[in-house]
Amino acid sequence: MQSITINGSQRESVGKSATKALRNAGKVPCVLYGGDKPIHFSATEKAFKSLVYTPNVYTASIELDGKTYAAVLQDIQFHPVTDEILHIDFYQLFEDKPVTMEIPVKLVGKSKGVMIGGALRHNMRKLKVKALPANLPDFIEADITELEIGNKLYITKLANENYTFLHPDNTVVAQVRMSRNAAKAAAEAEGKKK
């Protein structure tokens, strides 16, 4: 999985006034959980743009005072009016501990059902997976080539030994449904037969 580097500085004082002063200086207060004790730090808001405002999923490489921590974004708080980032929580990654993340689904192939007029529905755009950090994929590839009108692509078809899905086996990732045009064409063809 791709990683984005965030250069930050540890915060000594935590509290309302210290946090407000940080935000006024254009910095975002953050906390890194998962280690021996939580690490409070801050970084400029620009450092998070490529991590937050993207459909892709990345791990974060947080550099604080010469030390580097591998982490994933766990929670983020936005200002209700300005959409400014108020606070971010990270969770530290360890090579031997599995982590849960939502990974984007990428549809590949041309569906047979869509080619004859069906409508493709992309039901699950992200899937929750559990894996060791080294096995986390950038995206999950779902082949829709064999889908005909009325067919569904279930999560069981996407199974992989590197990670496990945290969804029920009957979760539909994509499906091809009858479109109005296809239904009209089928009705006209049926009318010609009689």
TrEMBL record:
Ribosomal protein found in the keyword field:
yes
Ribosomal protein is among the record's keywords? yes
What Gene3D superfamilies does this protein map onto?
Answer: Ribosomal protein L25, beta domain (2.170.120.20), Ribosomal Protein L25, Chain P (2.40.240.10)
Quote the SUPFAM superfamilies the UniProt record gives: Ribosomal protein L25-like (SSF50715)
Q: Which GO terms describe its cellular component?
A: cytosolic large ribosomal subunit
**Any GO BP annotation:** translation
In this chain the Large ribosomal subunit protein bL25 L25 domain maps to 6-90
Cite the InterPro entries for this sequence.
Rbsml_bL25/Gln-tRNA_synth_N (IPR020056), Ribosomal_bL25/Gln-tRNA_synth (IPR011035), Ribosomal_bL25_b-dom (IPR020057), Ribosomal_bL25_C (IPR037121), Ribosomal_bL25_long (IPR001021), Ribosomal_L25_dom (IPR029751), Ribosomal_uL5_bac-type (IPR020930)
Which keywords does UniProt give here? Ribonucleoprotein, Ribosomal protein, RNA-binding, rRNA-binding
Kindly name one Pfam family recorded for this protein. Answer: Ribosomal_TL5_C
**Entry GO MF terms:** 5S rRNA binding; structural constituent of ribosome
What positions does the domain Large ribosomal subunit protein bL25 beta occupy?
Answer: 99-179
Subunit info here reads: Part of the 50S ribosomal subunit; part of the 5S rRNA/L5/L18/L25 subcomplex. Contacts the 5S rRNA. Binds to the 5S rRNA independently of L5 and L18.
Function statement: This is one of the proteins that binds to the 5S RNA in the ribosome where it forms part of the central protuberance.
Q: Which family does it belong to?
A: Belongs to the bacterial ribosomal protein bL25 family. CTC subfamily.
Q: Which HAMAP family match?
A: Ribosomal_bL25_CTC (MF_01334)
Protein name as it appears in the record? Large ribosomal subunit protein bL25
Q: Name the gene that codes for it.
A: rplY
